[in-house]
Amino acid sequence: MKPTLFRDRNFTAGTVFAFVLGLTYYASLALRRVDTRLMLGFGLSLSAWAFYAMTGWTPDVSQWTIVWVGVAQGIGLGFLFVPLSTVTLATLSPAQRTEGAGLYSLSRNIGSSVGISVVNALLTRNTQINHADIVEHVTAVNRAFESPMVMRFWNPLDAAGRAALDAMITQQAQIISYIDDYKLLMIAILSVFPLLIVFKKTSHRDADHTLAME
């Protein structure tokens, strides 16, 4: 295999896409052999690790780091959605599964909407707070302004320098806010680990019935 193939963005993206889809498909087949709680634990661990890795990201993060962490996160999600729906609905009676599937989908959609709203709200709020905290240290007596290089780009004595300085402070405030959001998402994933103990072990027959419904 020639590594130059992966220089083509479409080929690389399609290969990764096919890998994740194939993984999800075979994860559903593995439900017939592996305890779904183990698969959920693996998916949660991989997703939590992905968010942990993101807490170290800066604007200098490499493209390959973003790609591989994204792939790991996609694999983790592949081991979450199908097993979770299976273990959630498997112990319901056939007469209750249709209604249960509807409530399960509703709760997932509400959770997604609430999660997006909360993360965006925290990102905006924390950016403002972090911006204010950083500005407190940007004063005329800050020795960093003694550097000619700093004064060349971020001179607080002229309008262009103040605008560039404010843009830099805003960028740093946003970086901290994104890291805080990633930490929150990692903690949210880790907090559901105890629920794995609550789930009952499902039989292969129950899993097959649930997969057939999906």
Largest beta-sheet characterization: none
Radius of gyration: 24 Å
CATH architecture: Up-down Bundle
Order of helices and strands: HHHHHHHHH
CATH C-level name: Mainly Alpha
What do we call the CATH topology? Growth Hormone, Chain: A
Determine the N-to-C terminus distance: 37 Å
Descriptive labels:
single chain, 214 residues, mainly alpha, Growth Hormone, Chain: A, 75% helix, 0% strand, elongated
Structure description:
The chain is mostly helical. The protein has a single domain (7-213), classed as Growth Hormone, Chain: A, CATH 1.20.1250. 75% of the residues lie in helices and 0% in strands. It is built from nine helices and no strands. Helix 2 (36-54) packs antiparallel against helix 7 (159-191) and helix 5 (94-135) runs antiparallel to helix 7 (159-191). 15% of the residues are buried.
Provide the fold topology.
Layout: H1 9-30, H2 36-54, H3 63-78, H4 81-89, H5 94-135, H6 148-153, H7 159-191, H8 195-198, H9 204-213
